[in-house]
Amino acid sequence: MGKYLIISGLRFLVGPYNNVKEEIVRQIRFKRGLIVLPCSLHDVASVSLHCNLKSHYDRVDICTTDGMPLVWWAALQAWHKVERVYGPDLMKSVLINTQGDHFRHVFCGSSPSRLKRLVDRITKIAPETHVVGAFTPTIQLRETKEERRCLQKIIERKPSVLWLGISSPKQVALAARWKKHLPRSTIFCVGAAFDLISGALPTAPAWMQTTGLEWLFRLIREPRRLYKRYLFVIPRFLFNEILSRLRSYFF
Length: 251
Description:
The protein has 2 domains: 3-195, no CATH class; 208-250. The protein has 12 helices and 8 strands. It has helices at residues 17-30, 41-49, 54-57, 68-78, 87-97, 112-125, 145-157, 170-178, 193-198, 206-210, 214-221, 223-250; strands at 3-7, 10-14, 35-39, 62-65, 104-109, 130-135, 161-165, 186-189. The strands form 2 sheets. It has a 6-stranded parallel beta sheet, with helices on both faces. The radius of gyration is 18 Å and the shape is globular.
């Protein structure tokens, strides 16, 4: 069994990987209607630096330690074993454990060609996955007509699990809006997991993942898309955190 821990206002389920995965699968089977977010330091920074995003992230029921910096941070607070719950690994584990007609899966995000590659890949990872829909709408932080049309199609599919492969914070805002319309669905915000599992994007070497340098690998691969995240947003958040802790310690 994992342990729940509050980090920067977000509710994390932490512990050994298998314990966290099993608890999430158990919640899916109960059809509780949850939002699950494999959480990155960028998510934590976004909530801290942009107050308008807090209401969206407050709707997330379970965050997991997607990156090594959060694993280290959680381990300092939990005082027991905390392992990385990497989004692509969690997605594959959940798919393997929710095969068969009893579980209906819908995928939303990425591009049509990449989404097709993902579904093809899933048939190899978990051959009995019951895929009932795959959609690629353009998503914004605010609701659009295109989004409402997509939501209606998804509601008609009655998914047990809805997978969102959209960058944060857009995917979190979307999940927060859709949660009330899908009260018995578990919504996973897995970001780049679609592209990593499908093979559209390369995975960082194991040594970079375990040493917390995956961000550097991603920045080198996608500098135009990610430079603000890794060179401005996260450093600004870390600076504010360090400054805040120093003030509380000395004053």
